[in-house]
C-alpha cells in the first residue's frame, strides 16, 4: 500500500495556507498507512462469509477430554456460577446461540489421559480448528448467520459431537 502526497506549488507561495513541516507530513503519511493497514486487518478478521464485524464476540469455551469409562468427549466449560458436576449433561453439550450474533468458539485440548489430538468443526459456519495437542487451544470467531440445528464435531473421533442450536 503506497501513499503519495502531492504538494501543489501554489501552497508553497500561499502564506495564508497551513504549512506543514517535512516531519509533520511524513508523520501524517505514516499515520494514514497504519490506519489503513489496521482497517484492512479488522475487515479481514471475519472468518465466514467475508462479512466484517466490529462487535465483541460471545465466548463459548469447549474442552476435549478422555474418560476411562465413556471415552472421548467434548465438555462445556461454563463461565456461569454453579456446581461443578461432571455429570452427563455437560458431556457433548448443546450450544445455544442467538441468530445473527458474533460467536467465538474457544477449543482447548485437556486430554492428558489418551494424549490424542483433537479438533473442532462446524461445517455450516466454516469453523475448522487445527489438530490440537495436549493443552493447545484455538479460538475461532464466526457470525451465526443461519438458523437451525447443526453439529459440531471432532473429525478424529466420531463420538465427539454435539449440537449447535441457532435461533
Ligand atoms: Cu477428538
Write up what this structure looks like:
By secondary structure, the chain is α/β, with parallel strands linked by helices. It has two domains: about 10-45, no CATH class; about 60-165, Immunoglobulin-like, CATH 2.60.40.420. Helix content is about 15%, strand content about 30%. The chain contains two helices and nine strands. The protein has a four-stranded mixed beta sheet, with no helix packed on it. Strands 3-9-8 form a three-stranded mixed beta sheet, with no helix packed on it. β8 (about 150-155) and β9 (about 160-165) form a beta hairpin. It is elongated, with a radius of gyration of 24 Å. Residues about 80-85 and about 85-90 have low confidence and may be disordered. Copper (II) ion binds near residues 156 and 160. Copper (II) ion binds next to loops.
**What's the number of extended β-strand segments?**
9
For this entry, what is the oligomeric state of its chains?
single chain
* Helical content class: 10-25%
Sheet with the most strands: spatial strand order: 2-1-4-7
Spatial shape: elongated
* Elements, N to C (H/E): HHEEEEEEEEE
Question: What is the CATH architecture assignment of the largest domain?
Answer: Sandwich
The whole-angstrom Rg is 24 Å
Q: Which small compounds were modeled alongside the protein?
A: copper (II) ion
Distance from N terminus to C terminus (CA atoms, Å) equals 41 Å
Low-confidence segments, given as residue ranges, are: 79-83, 85-89
Amino acid at each position: 500500500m503506497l501513499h503519495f502526497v502531492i504538494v501543489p506549488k501554489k501552497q508553497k507561495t500561499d502564506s495564508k495556507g497551513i504549512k506543514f513541516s517535512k516531519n509533520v507530513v511524513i508523520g501524517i503519511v505514516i499515520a494514514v498507512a497504519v490506519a489503513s493497514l489496521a482497517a484492512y486487518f479488522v475487515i479481514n478478521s471475519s472468518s465466514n462469509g467475508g462479512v466484517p464485524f466490529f462487535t465483541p464476540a460471545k465466548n463459548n469455551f469447549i474442552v476435549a477430554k478422555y474418560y476411562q469409562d465413556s471415552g472421548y468427549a467434548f465438555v462445556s466449560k461454563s463461565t456461569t456460577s454453579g456446581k461443578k458436576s461432571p455429570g452427563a449433561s455437560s458431556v457433548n453439550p448443546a450450544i445455544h446461540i442467538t441468530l445473527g450474533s458474533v460467536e467465538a468458539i474457544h477449543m482447548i485440548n485437556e486430554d492428558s489421559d489418551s494424549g490424542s489430538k483433537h479438533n473442532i468443526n462446524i461445517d455450516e459456519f466454516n469453523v475448522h480448528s487445527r489438530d490440537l495437542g495436549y493443552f493447545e487451544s484455538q479460538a475461532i470467531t464466526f457470525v451465526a448467520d443461519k438458523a437451525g440445528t447443526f453439529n459440531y464435531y471432532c473429525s478424529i473421533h466420531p463420538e465427539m459431537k454435539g449440537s449447535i442450536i441457532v435461533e
